[in-house]
Write a structure and sequence with these properties.
- Helices cover about 15% and strands about 30% of the residues.
- By secondary structure, it is an alpha/beta fold.
- The chain folds into two domains: about 90 residues, Rossmann fold; about 110 residues, UDP N-Acetylglucosamine Acyltransferase, domain 1 (3 Solenoid), CATH 2.160.10.10.
- The radius of gyration is 17 Å and the shape is globular.
């Protein structure tokens, strides 16, 4: 059984710990999190310190890591941790809950995480380090970019393209054929019927662009 370290110790990390324990593919050696006190535990997994000891952990023989930061509206931290970890030479496996469904014709790439109850239909591509969270549905012929968070209960129609670093809030619906740009934000519960531009924020039923 390969050893793995988790970067981040919040709520998303707890879900990943449960997933990893159910799968039984990895031994979790610990958690790194700047906000948690060294020596404390998260679901019986010890906090070993901050990210600055990741090199030491790698040198001690731990070659696998997973990103335990979920990202709320902003996926930049998740993206930075992924790139830093990769540059150190650690592998970041995809983590797929056994109670999810992924079509054989679909692709889930490195570091992507698919949670319980998620459904990914045929000819869909999930790029690296993205989260398909609990109960999300992604229909046929979709593409989800890098470092993107599809939150719980999202429904995405067929032939939808979602750009890198985007955030699709809980319970949102994206109608078939829509294109969501890079660094886009879709508020929880929104119904997206038209394309969303790069760096845009939309909300409502139907969804309309909003300003901070």
């Amino acid at each position: 059984m390969q050893k793995i370290i988790i970067l981040g110790g919040g709520g998303h990390a707890k879900v990943l710990i449960a997933l990893i324990k159910i799968k039984g593919d990895f031994e979790i050696v610990g958690i790194l999190d700047i906000k948690l006190e060294k020596g404390t535990k998260v679901l019986d997994i010890p906090v070993l310190g901050e990210d600055n000891i990741l090199v030491d952990i790698f040198n001690d023989g731990v070659k696998m890591a997973c990103i335990g930061v979920g990202g709320v509206k902003d996926n930049n931290m998740r993206s930075r941790l992924f790139d830093t970890t990769k540059n150190m030479g650690l592998e970041i496996p995809s983590l797929i809950h056994p109670n999810s469904f992924i079509s054989r014709e679909s692709v889930v790439t490195e570091g992507a995480q698919v949670m319980a109850g998620a459904i990914i239909q045929t000819d869909t591509f999930i790029d690296e380090n993205s989260i398909i969270n609990t109960g999300a549905i992604i229909e046929h012929d979709c593409a989800v970019g890098k470092h993107t968070h599809i939150c719980p209960g999202v429904v995405i129609g067929g032939e939808v393209a979602i750009g890198d670093n985007s955030f699709i809030g809980a319970g949102a619906t994206i109608i078939q054929g829509v294109k969501i740009g890079i660094d886009a934000f879709v508020a929880a519960g929104s119904v997206v019927t038209n394309n969303v531009l790069d760096n845009s924020k939309v909300m409502g039923v139907p969804a309309r662009e909003i300003n901070d």
